Automatic annotation (TrEMBL):
GO CC annotation, single: plasma membrane
Domain of life: Eukaryota
Species annotation: Pseudolycoriella hygida
Bilayer topology annotation: Multi-pass membrane protein
UniProt KW ATP-binding keyword: no
Protein name (Swiss-Prot/TrEMBL): Tetraspanin
A Pfam entry, by short name: Tetraspanin
Disulfide bonding pattern of the chain: C151-C167
Family the entry assigns: Belongs to the tetraspanin (TM4SF) family.
SUPFAM superfamilies reported in the protein's UniProt record: Tetraspanin
Amino acid sequence: MGFGGRMDGCGQCIKYSMFIANFIIFVGGAIMFGLGIWTVVDKNFMNELLGTNLFAGATYVLIVTSALVCMVSFFGCIGAAKEVKCMLLTYFIVMFLIFVTMLIGGILGVVFREKVEQTMRQEMHSSLKLYGNRRAVTQAWDQTQTRLKCCGIDGWRDWNGLVPESCCQVTYGGQRKPCIEAPSPLTLYANGCSVVTTNFVKEHAAIIGGTGIALAALIIFGMIFSCSLFKMIE
């Protein structure tokens, strides 16, 4: 049944507010889903150097959670439009569980940001010795050095004279300057990969974390509107 008496105006206001909030939540969930896919497809080249699976694991959780947010927000819009109490109650429960999951994910993200530099340096020191012997490690180093324009852990001297071609600077013509036989600061990337990669991961985590916080805030509004609407429906 619908709203009655003097509650009509207030009820309709909450109804449309919930509809708008869920539309924004749907858009936010879609953005987070896109960020998650982008991370998996475009940013997985450094997984071998991270020293932890927390970053990859958090990304997959992000994809699943954001997809679920899109689905639930869509049903929330239907529940508000049709004034179905069962759908509103289900919406509230699922959104609450998603909110808790995102809160835990945010805490893990903070922990990851604090430990990433130490674990990455340790993994880099270990993997540096495996360069050329293990394909996954070799590709991770080459792609990281090429894409982030860095060389070694703290600099090119970490390679002890056996500098990979991926450390060489690229000229405007698209060719790499000769630097393998006679490496020098003029032909090699100047920055070490430890600081560059750490900053890269932290900045990327901050983008995802900021989007997650904004989406969590919207979810709170969605839950408030659904609870209010649930109580007003006769």
